[in-house]
Amino acid sequence: MKTKLNTHIMKTFKKHIKTMLLFTVLITLSVSCSSDSLEPDNNPPQQTYPLGDLQGNWIRIGGNNPTNNGMKINVNNDAGTITDAQQSNFMIGDIKWKDIVGQGSGNYTHQELGSDYNYYPAAISLGVDDTLRVDVNNSGAGNIQKWVRESHYTPQSVYLQVLQGSWIRVGGNNPVNNDIVIDVTDDTGTISDPALSGFNIGDIKWKDIYALDGNSFIYEELGSDDNYYPATMELGVADTLRIDVNNSGAGNIQKWVRHN
After folding, report:
1. Average pLDDT value for residue range 6-33
2. Three-class SS of residue 110?
3. Burial of 201 per CB tally in 10 Å (0-12, 13-18, 19+)
4. Closest Cα to residue 254, out of 169, 187, 191?
5. Could you tell me the end-to-end alpha-carbon distance of the chain, in angstroms, rounded to an integer?
6. Which letter does DSSP use for residue 156 in this model?
7. Does residue 18 carry a pLDDT above 80?
8. Non-local CB neighbours of 201 within 8 Å, separated by 6+ positions
9. Global pTM?
10. Integer Cα distance of 232 and 260 in angstroms
């Protein structure tokens, strides 16, 4: 009788011990999970910006590799695919821009397909005039590009006709450069008389001129530091040109008239 009682007590005791151990494990797990949830997140989600403004069709109109001008790209989600390769060595269907990421304020980063079929880090900047400026982190030709929406593309041979010929500078906020004469041929303005400016005959003062309409133009202006800056031209009455260069230096405001 006593032996049976002892056996029963031992079984009950062991069962009680197992229950206590299980309860202890559950409490430990609960505390651990609660502690984990209270720990700070050292890797918060990265801010993302929409890519809606880039979607659609774009045509290349300028840059430091003119052979690729006229190329067309369709941007869908975070990739830009070539739809018209023009005279470049690329193929229709090549992904020219991949992994596009919005950085906010019209700025984007992406991977740019080079002519060697390697990808390079690059940046896209969307301008207020619905133009794209691409800057590739590589020193090769084509690392600077300008694109416009295909729907905004105008036949340049028609609209650039009004700029062809000679122009002389007659005003602006840098009088030293007055009397410069520029000869415009196609989309390029070349200095034929530098006057007292410090530029040289043959310098390309205006390059990649692109017509937004019959009176408004965008282009690249050669500065006195030999760098090019985005600029706009407005053709007014009496054949006058008013130029606004996107740079705060002297000479960013100019007035030109026809030179006969």
Report:
1. 51
2. strand
3. exposed
4. 169
5. 132
6. H
7. no
8. 191, 192, 193, 194
9. 0.54
10. 23
Residue 18's alpha-carbon distances to 6, 9, 12, 22, 31, in angstroms, are: 18, 14, 10, 6, 20
Nearest-angstrom CA–CA distance, 175 and 188? 23
Kindly give, in sequence order, each residue whose CB lies less than 8 Å from that of residue 80, ignoring residues fewer than 6 positions away.
54, 58, 73, 74, 95, 96, 97, 98, 100, 110
Taking the C-alpha atoms of residue 177 and residue 194, their distance in angstroms, rounded to an integer, is 8
Which tens digits make up the pLDDT trace of 162-189? 999 999 999 999 999 999 999 999 999 9
The Cα 217–Cα 225 span in angstroms is 23
Handedness of CA 221, 154, 110, 89 (dihedral sign): negative
Stretch among 5-14, 109-118, 193-202, 204-213 having the lowest mean pLDDT: 5-14
E strand residue ranges, 142-187: 144-149, 165-172, 181-185
* DSSP3 helix / strand / coil % (the chain, rounded to 5): 25, 45, 35
Residues in the chain, total = 260
Compute the mean pLDDT over every residue in the chain, rounded to the nearest whole number.
85
> What does the pLDDT read at residue 252?
92
